[in-house]
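Sequence only, no structure available. Ideas?
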Amino acid sequence: MLTINYGERYSPPCTLILGCFDGIHRGHETLVARAKERGLPVGLMLLGGKGETVLFTKEERLSIAEELGIDFCLIVNLDEVKDIPAETFLDGILSDFSVECFVSGEDFRFGAGAKGTPLLLSSKRETICCPLITENGEKISSSAVRLLIERGEIERANSLLYLPFFVMGKVEHGREVGRTYGFPTANIVYPKRKVPLGYGVYAVRVGQYRGIANYGARPTFGEEAPLLEVYLDGFSGDLYGQTVKVVFEKKIRDIRKFSSKEELKEQLERDLRTVR
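Reply:
I predicted one. Tokens follow.
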């Protein structure tokens, strides 16, 4: 899949989906389905630099776009375009891309002062404007999913996302305390600008392996700094330095302090039985 920065050219006729897409949910999936109906290469705009936490990092969003069958992603940095008038921004895209059709949600806004609307898009090219997708009377949105993630309500968040919530991060060396009581874990670097996951113990998957993950403090060992630690059931090998994709399925329990390693080990064994 190609990645193209704003200001670069892409000459083949295409359908371009416009939006922020900091997290790709079921509403966005509808946009992709409509775009593919045109039978042309499909591009997806990814907006960065919003200065707030995102559901998925740029690398994670690119991996989702690839699974969606997107042909190319247009990377737009908000800091570079936020003061550009909407029509100027749009004309810049049309000068660099052979867009035959735009696709957007009905609430899409762009350009300085957010004055650009789907109506402006339709004045330039054929435009498919998709109505908002709702569930139980509420709009499915990235901000709604973000709030669920922060609360640790993973199952509810996953029901709204195109793919279950996941973290892509590098495995680093830790204190290796888990090895002393039979639960060696992989310490994953949690992306800095990614929405903070609610502290807790979760059922997870990494590739073909199921397991449990602790995200947050480790009060049993007197450590308050948040860390993502993953134990994979049946895995034996060296993951240090590798980037892994940790898929979260559900929250098992809250984090709590144990009186001893033995008590912690017993609880982890119970946690593991819930995911087998």
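The helical segments are 26-36, 58-67, 78-81, 86-96, 118-124, 142-151, 154-160, 261-275.
Hope that gets you unstuck.
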